[in-house]
Amino acid sequence: MFTKRFIIAFALYALSLDKTSAKPFIDGLKPCKRSDPKLEECLLNILKQAKPQLIRGNPQFNLPPLDPVHIPRISIGRSMQDINVTGDLFNLIANGTKSVTAKAFKVNLIKHTWDIELEIPLIMFITDFDLNVTLKALPKPIVDEGQCTGKISNSVLRLHSDTDSSDDKIKLKSVKINLNLGDVEINIIKSQNPALAQFLSKILKRNKRMVLDLVTPIVEDSAEKLLLRHGNSILSTMQITDLLAD
Questions:
Q1: pLDDT digits (tens, 9 = 90+) for 63-79
Q2: Rounded to 5 degrees, what angle do the CA atoms 161, 241, 166 make?
Q3: What is the distance between the alpha carbons of residues 209 and 118, in angstroms, rounded to a whole number?
Q4: Cα separation of 90 and 149, whole Å?
Q5: Most CB contacts within 10 A, which of 41, 132, 151, 216?
């Protein structure tokens, strides 16, 4: 029989629950069995099923949509070959995440590591910039503010994450991304120094390999920070048993 003390305790407990965390961000997923010989295939299917909800985002969990992706600021400091670039990108908006396809999923339940391979057909972006560019061919650095657009196509992203499991939760401790960009195209559409910007644009178009080497670590760093932050926000709404069952 329920006692008055039990009813009061239950009521207080119910009132103290965080209503938003009572329901996971990703609904309708069936957990995979740890003993399943096709565990990695099962987890890959979960990722594919979750993709539409991840792309849409969810304001209830403070998760923005992933297509388009908005990044307020990216600081740049890169030197290579005959070019040195420092400064910032502002209000970067990238479209195309919804076209990403998960190709492989590897998990080590003993070491708590997760590896995912993604194919990215096309990402298109627009961003404001405030950059200082030094070229060996020019006596003076190019200091410019403006706006540029770009395309990154036929890319492969490999993600390695170390996780921690405690209190029935999975948390990302670190995320390492290896990005293989197929092609990149950058066009300056607004500039305070149009003549110098036009000259720089020609150099960028003639030296695609240099641009790829310059852009790759910037994209990797931004993606790592983005995935670590939003990945843990999503995982915080879920229990381990939502993904893995005994």
A1: 778 889 888 999 988 88
A2: 55
A3: 22
A4: 12
A5: 216
Three-state DSSP at 25 gives: coil
Rounded to whole angstroms, how far apart are CA atoms 223 and 213?
A: 16
DSSP 46: H
* Burial track 53-77 (b if 16+ CB lie within 10 A, e otherwise): bbeebbeebebeebbbbebeebebe
| Residue written as token pair 């391979």 | 117
Statement: residue 88 has pLDDT above 80: yes
Q: 211: closest CA among 187, 227, 190?
A: 187
Q: Where are the domains of the chain?
A: 33-242
Give how far Cα 201 sits from Cα of 142, 198, 211, Å: 12, 5, 11
| Confidence label for 26 from pLDDT (cuts 50, 70 and 90) | low
What pLDDT, on the 0 to 100 scale, is given for residue 6?
Answer: 43
Q: Which CATH superfamily is domain 33-242 in?
A: TULIP domain (3.15.10.30)
Asked whether residue 19 carries a pLDDT value surpassing 60, the answer given is no
Query: Which tokens go with 56?
Result: 């849409």
Secondary structure element (H or E) that encloses residue 167, with its range: none
Question: Would you say how long the chain is, in residues?
Answer: 246
Q: Is-contact 50 27, C-beta < 8 A?
A: no
- Going by C-alpha positions, the residue among 230, 235, 237, 167 that lies closest to residue 23 is 237
What backbone torsions phi and psi does residue 168 show, to the nearest 5 degrees? 60, 25
3-state secondary structure of 26: coil
pLDDT for res 195: 80
Output the CA torsion 18→20→23→24 (10° steps).
-120
